[in-house]
Amino acid sequence: METEFRDDENPKELKELGEALTVKYLDEAAPEIQPAAVEFQVCGHIGGVAVHGYVDLLDVQGRIIDLKSAARKPGDISNDYRFQIATYAQLILGGTGRARLDTLTKTKKPELVQQEFTIEASDVEQTQKLYPAVQQAIRAGHFLPNRSSNLCSRRYCSFWRRCEQTWGWRGLGMSRRCSFRTQGTLRLPGKRPAQRRADHLA
Ligand code: SF4
C-alpha cells in the first residue's frame, strides 16, 4: 500500500521522527516488558452490546500496556481513556485491570512518559451503562456527534460536512472523538484510524 502525505507533511522529517520514537521506546521501555500478547483483537459483550477492539500489548502480569504518541507531555489519564482501557480489561481473559499508558512525545528531543493506573469498579460501571445507552440511541435513529474524538476533524472524518450541517460547526472543539458503528458492532475509540468509519452519518 502506498502512503499518501499531505502537502504540509515532510516525508523525510516524519521518517526521522518515527525512527527516533522507535529507538527511544526500544531503548527505554521494551527491555523491561515481558509480553504475553501483542497487537491482538478482543471482542465480547459489555452491558449486552457486542464490542471489539485492539490491544497494543498485554504483559505476563496481566497488565495492559497502551502506546501512544503525542505532541506534548500528557496530563492526567482522561476519563475517555479510562473508558477505553476499562473496555479492554473486561474483554481480555486474564486481564487484571492494571494498565500503563506509555506516551512518546513528538518533540525535538522525544520523551517517554509512563503512567500506571488501575481500572476501578466505577470505570467498569460506566462502560456497562454507556454502551447500551449508545446502542439504544442508534437503534432509535439518534446519532449524536462525539467531538472529543481524536478523529473528529475535517482532516480525518469523511462526514464532517454532513455533521456540520446537522449539528452546526464545532467552534473550538471539533478535534476529538466520535461514536460510530460498524455492522452492528460498536468499535472502540482510539484505535486503528484507517479502519474507522463514522457510518452513522453516511
Ligand atoms: S461524524 Fe465526524 S465530524 Fe461528526 S462528530 Fe463524528 S468524527 Fe466528528
For the biggest sheet, the summary is:
7 strands, mixed
Number of strands: 7
Helix content: 25-40%
In CATH, the topology of one domain is named: Lambda Exonuclease, Chain A
Number of H- or I-type helical stretches = 4
Distance between the termini: 25 Å
Helix and strand run: HEEEHEEHHEE
Unreliable spans? 172-187, 189-202
Radius of gyration: 18 Å
Mean pLDDT figure: 84
> Structural class of the secondary elements?
alpha/beta
User: Which percent band covers the strand fraction?
Assistant: 15-25%
Shape: globular
Q: Give the C-level CATH assignment of one domain.
A: Alpha Beta
Distinct small-molecule ligands in the complex = iron/sulfur cluster
What is the annotated CATH architecture of one domain? Alpha-Beta Complex
Q: How would you describe what is shown here?
A:
The chain is built from four helices and seven strands, in the order H-E-E-E-H-E-E-H-H-E-E. The chain is of the alpha/beta class and 202 residues long. The chain has a domain of 132 residues: Lambda Exonuclease, Chain A (Alpha-Beta Complex). Helix 2 crosses helix 3. The longest helix is centred in the middle third of the chain and has 19 residues. The C terminus is likely disordered. The structure holds iron/sulfur cluster. The site of iron/sulfur cluster (SF4) has 13 residues, from helix 4.
